[in-house]
Design goal:
The chain is mainly alpha-helical. It has nine helices and no strands. It is globular and about 60 Å long.
């Protein structure tokens, strides 16, 4: 984990602070867009906290996937140090991301509460659990992507393009109650909308989502994670046979 932290944030004066600057900048830009367009959140809360509860789960998922997708390539020489394995390298990345998740959530939600006078979360445990679901899906998808990347470099490079549309399916700008029944039925299959709705249910007193489910994101995360295990074993065995590992 220490090696991962130092290599990822090496260079530049800000270094490790970039892990926390990035989500703050994203939130600030979208809030500024709300102001310019004179748009108000669909529920009776400030734009700052509404955007924060939407974008933080997405960023946790995206950053976890992105980190895992490149960690095996970045730490490829570590695998020559037995008994260091691919699983050890990916686990270190996952644990580093969960620490970032907890710290970022505390800084952002705490900062919004102190600066703008917004009430704290109605259920802190519910918010943390919902964010953990975003991290869990990131771990499952990221591990699958990392394993697939051992077979195809092109697949790893295509991941950012695949993740980009998910930004619009995560409920950052809207809630499920704003959508028609037909659109709700379609977006029900987006686990990220479920997670955003769960975060807002736990954060805002009185908000109840019409679609939020805990078990669907868990099933998606478990499905990707389980699928990644045989894929990683096959990819590793193939690389050994070709003399690349």
């Amino acid at each position: 984990m220490e090696r991962e932290r130092k290599t990822r944030f090496s260079g530049g004066k800000l270094g490790y602070l970039w892990a926390y600057i990035t989500p703050v900048v994203w939130i600030a830009l979208i809030v500024a867009l709300f102001w310019v367009l004179q748009r108000t959140p669909p529920i009776h809360v400030r734009a700052e906290i509404f955007i924060a509860t939407g974008i933080l789960p997405y960023l946790i998922f995206r950053q976890t996937v992105t980190s895992l997708s490149r960690t095996l390539a970045a730490s490829r020489y570590m695998r020559y140090l037995r008994p260091v394995s691919n699983n050890d390298i990916m686990l270190a990345t996952m644990l580093l991301e969960v620490l970032h998740m907890l710290t970022s959530a505390a800084l952002i939600f705490g900062g919004v509460t102190l600066l703008f006078g917004d009430p704290p979360p109605e259920s802190v445990q519910g918010v943390v659990f919902s964010l953990a679901l975003a991290w869990g899906i990131g771990c499952g998808v990221g591990r699958f992507v990392a394993a697939a990347g051992l077979l195809s470099d092109a697949f790893s490079r295509a991941v950012p393009l695949i993740l980009r549309p998910l930004f619009w399916l995560s409920g950052i700008f809207y809630t499920a109650t704003d959508l028609s029944k037909e659109v709700q039925d379609i977006l029900w299959y987006s686990p990220f909308l479920h997670i955003t709705e769960l975060v807002r249910e736990s954060y805002f007193l009185g908000y109840t989502s019409p679609i939020a489910s805990v078990w669907y994101p868990i099933a998606v995360a478990a499905g990707f994670f389980l699928a990644s295990v045989p894929l990683e074993m096959f990819a590793t065995r193939r690389r050994i046979m070709r003399g690349r590992l």
